[in-house]
Amino acid sequence: MYLVVAAFTGVLVVTTDITPLWATAVLPLVLLAAYHFLTGRRMRISDMEAIRIGSATAPFEVGHGSATLGFAGMLAKPVWQVLVFEAGATPLHQALVTVDALSGEVQGIYTQSVPPL
User: Fold this and answer.
1) What range defines the domain where residue 13 resides?
2) In 3D, which of 46, 81, 87, 82 has the Cα closest to residue 65?
3) Which terminus of the chain faces fewer neighbouring Cβ atoms within 10 Å, N or C?
């Protein structure tokens, strides 16, 4: 859509004598379209798959977990942040596992003890 609007505006610039329109409309639209083409990726790993990967990576038996999607870096690489808790009536440990949403590779893990209530 950005490229269509940029092309239409480019035609207006060529057919009329509006030169500032080039720098203020066409160029930003083309740059924005290029950025969206670079960052637009199809995720291969779903939230449930990320939770399974996080559960398998945790150094304890997992009772339950949840996943949220985040983005890393200038190219907005999709990353799942999986929070898992140890199995049991009152979990004693929790872990945050970062999973690449494109490849399923574990990027990091952080574990900590849960203080008893």
Assistant:
1) 2-39
2) 82
3) C
